Amino acid sequence: MTDTYDVIVLGGGPVGENAAQYAVANSDRTAVIVEHELVGGECSYWACMPSKALLLPGSVLDQARNMPGVASLVGDRTLDVDAVLARRDSYTHGLDDSSQVEWAESAGIDVVRGHGRLAGEKTVTVGDRTLTARHAVVLATGTTAAVPPIPGLREARPWTSRDSTNLHEVPDRVLILGGGVVACESATWLLALGARVTMVVRSGLLGTAEPFAGTAVADALTAAGADIRTGATIARVDRPDARDTRYGHVHGGPATVTIESDNGTDTLEVDEILVAAGRRPATDDLGLDTVGLTPGESVPVDDALTAVGDWLYAAGDVNGRALLTHMGKYQARVCGDVIAARADGRPTDSRRHRATADYGQVPQVVFTTPEVASVGPTEAAAREAGRDVRTVETDIAVAGSSLRQDNFSGHAKLVIDRASDTLLGATFVGQGVAEILHSATVAVVGAVPLDVLWHAVPSYPTTSEIWLRLLDEARER
């Protein structure tokens, strides 16, 4: 292996993989990925893939219970936990990244194991080894789970999302700290797998979404057995025999958790505590100070994903722009294209060389039961940004949704810019609504006027027919 490459990428997750691939594609340029854990990163082994593998069986069971002709076959049966965990393991390959390494090598990308640190311009150290870049260094190290400074919490060896997605045994009693996406999805699959779940939430669930979305998810989790303590905080945690055995193994005996709320102080005993209280950039030990940046903070970039000069780039969660895998991969594609163009001496002033979708055009799906799918700003966010907007909303009650399952319940809302009569944002809540989100994303990114969108006819009978109802509402105003 050589010590000099055209492109050096720190971080071997989907973002790093895409940045390296796009930077060297159809050329004789060389690239190396430096990874201290598993090639494939957080998404492949500890986040997107295992979490969705854990969530889907519960969603299928819910649909079966609301489908005549199937419901009687299901009855009161619960999930086969061992089979669910085995299927999860099939997607994470038992935390074996050999297939990902093989892909990198087949794409002409070397892999160096170890922790990479910047050591000045175009220079990276990995242990005793020094790597030099001819053209670019890309930071794609992502984020890590934040653990708040609650007395006794860190000493209690709480779970983070990594432990939750890689559990080997289902705890009887789990307390979840937080009310965001990770908290809500984790609560969904833990309940489906048979755990008793308590959620401690400072405010409502999914606080950055439209309010009706958080309410729908809270109602569904409560109906499934969750005890949601809204307006509450953890004052302290006591777990004297905790020990640090990671990723789903038992961490010790029961923990005693003191919860404070407007109703007073309560004490709860649980088997595991899952901290889902946000993420922090993984930049503490990247050598950022050697290039004039601040360790421990997100790396600021321009729309070409450039952080320093024309050689240091930061893509994905590490830059703090949009903490979602698909947005990180989008940034990585832009970043790789910019690196390739600059290496070839080509101009970089085209739209493909600028990341713009992470400015108010970000799609996201929360895979709870029901699902929450959204793109663009909420009504509140749009108004706060000074936009003059109008909204339309309606329950999702069309032929396609009723056919999907009995007792289907859903709601949809559009946020419309008055001046241009184009879509700024959309939110859908209901089973299976993730599959209709991309049409809204295309409308938002393409700034499609509503009178043009009217002629995009949804197929019958599908849930996407909700577009007709929403556009009808928009025309009447």
How do you describe this structure in short?
The protein is an alpha/beta fold.
What is the overall silhouette?
Answer: globular
Helical fraction? 25-40%
**C-alpha Rg, in Å?**
24 Å
Give the N-to-C terminal Cα separation: 66 Å
The helix/strand class is alpha/beta
| Biggest sheet statistics | 8 strands, mixed
The helix tally amounts to: 15
Mean pLDDT: 95
* Unreliable residue runs: none
Beta-strand segment tally: 22
Classify the beta-strand content into a percent band: 15-25%
Structure description:
The protein has helices spanning 14-24, 41-45, 48-65, 71-74, 81-92, 98-106, 161-165, 181-192, 211-223, 325-344, 379-384, 399-404, 437-445, 450-453, 466-475, and strands at residues 4-10, 31-35, 109-113, 116-118, 123-126, 129-139, 143-145, 173-177, 196-201, 227-230, 233-238, 255-261, 264-270, 272-275, 279-281, 306-308, 312-314, 363-366, 371-375, 389-395, 411-417, 422-430. With 477 residues, the chain is of the alpha/beta class. The strands form 5 sheets. Strands 1, 2, 3, 4, 5, 6, 16 and 17 form an 8-stranded mixed β-sheet that branches. Strands 18-19-22-21-20 form a 5-stranded antiparallel β-sheet, sandwiched between helices. It starts with a strand and ends with a helix. The model has no long low-confidence stretch (mean pLDDT 95).
